[in-house]
Design brief:
- The protein is of the alpha/beta class and 222 residues long.
- Helix content is 31%, strand content 20%.
- Helix 1 crosses helix 2.
- The mean pLDDT is 90.
Length: 222
């Protein structure tokens, strides 16, 4: 585990993007898993800029989206649409490279199993970009779900299929990002004194390959 603290959101975004880019440059066939949260936008901005400047090519990289709403009446992939605007529309990532835990035709359980199977077929996820949430949750996992792989969750009436804590713990290099003083308490629980029931994110401090990238405000209680 390593902890990196930078001055501001832009620098955090550049640092996280550099870590991800280094894996792609070293192994163009690697697997990258992505979360969506507003605090990750500086990371996606930096990755987009690297691509636009010709420093980064995504042509052989496999992308796994770590959670998605289950289909509603619109049938839209709501998180995928947000990631499309933030990153994919600004890069050379094709639809064939992108795996989303979403299906209109099979059950949530089958969709979750298919997603896990896709990860296994790829040989595992090399890098996962994950946001710290203010409630300490890890993706869409409440604190009771310590051992689950990808599965269905319902939170405040919204249904998701989300990678589980056990899925994330098998990632070779999780990159966890926190930006802003609103996340300082969650960062403290995650890195210092939280149990899994207080903070599912606390599991990641046990991961030897995890890198936590924080701005000064998010780290102020450490």
């Amino acid at each position: 585990m390593s902890i990196l603290i930078y001055r501001d959101a832009k620098t955090v975004g550049a640092a996280a993007a550099t870590l991800i880019a280094s894996h792609i440059l070293r192994d163009p066939h690697c697997a990258i898993a992505v979360d969506y949260h507003e605090t990750l936008l500086p990371v996606y901005d930096s990755l987009s800029a690297m691509t636009e400047n010709g420093l980064l090519c995504w042509g052989d990289t496999q992308i796994f989206q770590l959670f998605e709403f289950q289909p509603d009446e619109s049938g839209e992939q709501r998180i995928a649409n947000l990631l499309g605007k933030s990153l994919f529309a600004k890069t050379d990532i094709s639809e064939a490279q992108y795996t989303v835990p979403f299906s209109r035709d099979v059950s949530a359980h089958e969709t979750a199993e298919d997603f896990e199977r896709s990860i296994l077929n790829k040989g595992g996820i090399d890098v996962a970009l994950i946001a710290v949430r203010s409630d300490g949750s890890l993706l869409m996992n409440p604190c009771t779900d310590h051992d689950l792989a990808t599965h269905a969750e319902t939170i405040e009436g919204d249904s998701f299929i989300t990678a589980g804590i056990s899925t994330v713990m098998q990632v070779k290099h999780p990159v966890i990002v926190a930006i802003g003083k609103n996340y300082a308490s969650a960062v403290k629980a995650m890195l210092q004194d939280g149990s899994l029931c207080d903070s599912p994110l606390a599991a990641l401090r046990l991961h030897p390959g995890a890198t936590f990238i924080l701005d000064e405000e998010a780290a102020e209680l450490l």
